[in-house]
Amino acid sequence: MIFTDDTTAALNFVAALADTVPEASESGEDELATTAQLNDLLDEWIYSGRRDGDPRELAEVVAARERLRALWALDRDDAVVEVNAILAESRAVPRLVRHDTLDWHIHATSLEAPLAERILVEAAMALVDVIRADETDRMRACAADDCTGIFLDLSKNGSRRFCSTRCGNRMAVRAYRARSTG
Fold first, then answer.
1. What is the pLDDT of residues 96-147, one digit of tens each?
2. Rounded average pLDDT over 149-171
3. Quick one: three-class SS letters along 142-154?
């Protein structure tokens, strides 16, 4: 395993959150347009802590989604600047916690902090591990020409190119058709 379980979970959550934009979602629509959709995403990823469930919280999470999508694309040194900014803005204080069915892992904000802040800080803490391990190249954008999805490449040889099997299959079909007609 390249990263700890909580780092991998946090980064995979960031990718799932980021891929709710219309250009990356399976539906082609904004899959984070309602508080119910946000709640479903949080439930799916077993995201603990405070949830207000109101339009303000949704707007803050949507803004966090955009910030994290931009952060995902930064080179290592620029990512450090953004990670440090997120941690400073939230006055993050890392500590070990154990809750629900999870064993000891790191939190750097209170479970009562606003949801968008918790999302940003958890992502930043996970990115600390990625940056320290010099593995930012594992944070990828989908190679499909019609997808803006992002993903964490945890393959052994770091060769994954697509955010989903669907994108990989679609691009393989296109390549096959191009060869067949050319």
1. 988 888 888 888 999 899 999 999 999 999 999 999 999 999 999 999 988 9
2. 89
3. CCCCCCCCEEECC
Helix (H) or strand (E) holding 99: strand 95-99
> In degrees rounded to 5, what are phi and psi of residue 152?
-100, 120
- What is the phi/psi pair of residue 99, to 5°? -155, 165
Best CA proximity match to 91, nearest among 74, 110, 76: 110
Q: Is-contact 25 31, C-beta < 8 A? A: yes
Angstrom CA distances, 161 to 72, 88, 166, stand at: 15, 33, 12
Measured CA to CA, the distance from residue 7 to residue 134 in angstroms comes to 14
By the 10 Å C-beta count (0-12 exposed, 13-18 middle, 19+ buried), 58 is classed as buried
- Determine if the pTM surpasses 0.85: yes
Fill in the DSSP letter of residue 65. H
Is beta strand 102-107 parallel, antiparallel or unpaired with respect to 95-99? antiparallel
Arithmetic mean of pLDDT, 50-64? 97
Query: How far apart are alpha carbons 34 and 8 in whole angstroms?
Result: 26
Task: Work out the average pLDDT over 10-32.
Answer: 94
Side chain identity, residue 105: H
Q: Kindly state the tokens that stand for 159.
A: 């060769």
- Contact between 85 and 166 (Cβ < 8 Å): no
φ, ψ for residue 62 (rounded to 5)? -60, -40
End-to-end CA separation in angstroms for the chain: 42
